[in-house]
Amino acid sequence: MQDNTLLETLKWKKFPVLDHGFVCLVDVMGSDTAVVQAARVSYGEGTRKTSDDRTLLRYLMRHRHTTPFEMAEVKLLVRVPMDTWRQWIRHRTASVNEYSTRYSLAIDAVYATESDAWRRQATANRQGSEGMIGTECGSRLTEREKAFHEQARSLYEERIGSGVAREQARKDLPLSTYTEAYWKVDLHNLLRFLALRMEPNAQFEIVRYATTIGQEIVRPIFPLVWEAFLDYQLKSMRLSRLEQDVLSRLARSGRIPADEEQFLEAQDESWRTLERCRERDECREKLIRLGILAVRSESNGG
Ligand SMILES: Cc1cc2nc3c(=O)[nH]c(=O)nc-3n(C[C@H](O)[C@H](O)[C@H](O)COP(=O)(O)OP(=O)(O)OC[C@H]3O[C@@H](n4cnc5c(N)ncnc54)[C@H](O)[C@@H]3O)c2cc1C
Questions:
Q1: Closest residue to atom 11 of ligand 1, CA basis
Q2: In the predicted model, is pLDDT for residue 297 greater than 70?
Q3: Cα 16 from chain centroid (whole Å)
Q4: Whose C-alpha lies nearest to ligand 1, atom 38?
Q5: How many C-beta atoms lie closer than 10 Å to residue 216's C-beta?
Q6: β-sheet bridge partners, residue 25
């Protein structure tokens, strides 16, 4: 059953993201129950006796029986900087209507960066960032950014004022300009989006959007699905064959050595096979998460 009071509270509420962005629930079809109901069609009446809704949902998520999750849908209105939207729109399994800057004036809002928010390029992960640029340099960059945003907007407005078509006047607007879109997606593909975009390797900005959608919208409307999603997707860990070898050798050795890296290097063929590469770094991160290796300073993604 859908809790109508909850939906009325959530619908059209703008959850702020970044400086001028938001996500807003427009409509929803289905609930935890809709997923369970669809699954029971395929598993038959028997499941009613042997498993309650929560157990069944957790089973479906654990075993990647995904189609029942397609029975629920969520429609959002989002306001998002264009560069973040460019990553978002790569998720093709959604229906989209975007604000048209051919038809209307471009939204007069840009995503600005505070002086302490400039991230440093990561060395290990070429796509990511790690640590921050100092505020002295950051203040200068923020000042330059502000001047640039003002100049870009003023050029755009000058073109519009001179009668240039909106479709052409917009061509030099920065990617930090906000756009708006309706985004409708089924729950299965929404969870897929969240799993990829709430992950530390995703870019900070899209992580903020995905986390807000997950926490503020999906969690209250689909509490059992959300719980299973955290347990079996977002906070779960996949182990490759080589990683399993490393772990079982460590377990068989019966001790956590003082210098784990040296121990692994000497003893573990799989560890050596992984060599010095992203795969080995990822294996190390997993061992750290499991409390087997000591924490070292690592890239914090981006
Ligand atoms: C951290 C990160 C870094 C990324 N870096 C890059 C990058 O550098 N360059 C880049 O181009 N992209 C990049 N991407 C985007 C990525 O490659 C995917 O396009 C994006 O994550 C959408 O995932 P998806 O295709 O699974 O989702 P969706 O498009 O929603 O598709 C969901 C699933 O539907 C199926 N599907 C959808 N369309 C088709 C189709 N046409 N044919 C067959 N099956 C289909 C597939 O099973 C797919 O997994 C990055 C994504 C992340 C999370």
A1: 90
A2: no
A3: 16
A4: 92
A5: 17
A6: 11, 76
- Residue 79 predicted with pLDDT over 90: yes
Eight-class DSSP state of 118:
P
Which pair of structure tokens corresponds to residue 239?
């182990």
Strand, helix or coil at 283? helix
- pLDDT tens digits for range 143-192: 999 999 999 999 999 999 999 999 999 999 999 999 999 999 999 999 99
Q: Which of 197, 208, 280, 284 is catalytic?
A: 197
Measured from the Cα of 93, ligand 1's closest atom is 30
Q: What is the pLDDT of residues 179-194, one digit of tens each?
A: 999 999 999 999 999 9
If you take atom 27 of ligand 1, which residue's CA is the nearest one? 91
Distance, CA 155 to ligand 1 centroid (Å)?
Answer: 35
Q: Given the DSSP bridges, would you call strands 178-186 and 129-132 parallel, antiparallel or unpaired?
A: unpaired
CB atoms within 10 A of CB 143: 11
- Distant-in-sequence, close-in-space partners of 56: CB < 8 Å, separation ≥ 6: 36, 39, 40, 43, 47
User: Radius of gyration over alpha carbons of the chain, in Å?
Assistant: 24
